[in-house]
Design brief:
Elements: H1 6-19, H2 22-40, H3 42-54, H4 72-82, H5 84-99
């Protein structure tokens, strides 16, 4: 008798749940893009780190989604919320540079 891994089954359930809500899927795609940007751009990550210090936030990196870890979406969203103030400021600064 085959007994599936509980965490694997839980991951599949969470993934299916998230896919059934189009608005949630779109939101998660945007959040993943933000996290990827800071993971793949050292200058952006350094600037975000400086903004975190300016706002008195803990100097943590953003957490990226990992498809095989059911709780990575939760951790990604929690960390993004923690860094929201610094990320919004980064976006505002970046928009000003683009306008110039």
């Amino acid at each position: 008798m085959h007994i599936p891994c509980l965490t694997h089954v839980l991951n599949l359930v969470v993934q299916k749940f998230l896919k059934n809500y189009p608005d949630m899927s779109q939101l998660l795609q945007k959040v993943r893009a933000v996290c990827k940007h800071f993971w793949h751009s050292n200058p952006a990550a350094a600037y975000l780190s400086a903004l975190q210090r300016n706002f008195g936030l803990p100097a943590h990196r953003l957490i990226c989604y990992v498809p095989t870890r059911w709780n990575s979406t939760l951790h990604m969203l929690e960390r993004l919320c923690e860094k929201q103030q610094a990320i919004v400021e980064f976006q505002l600064q970046h928009a000003r540079i683009q306008e110039s």
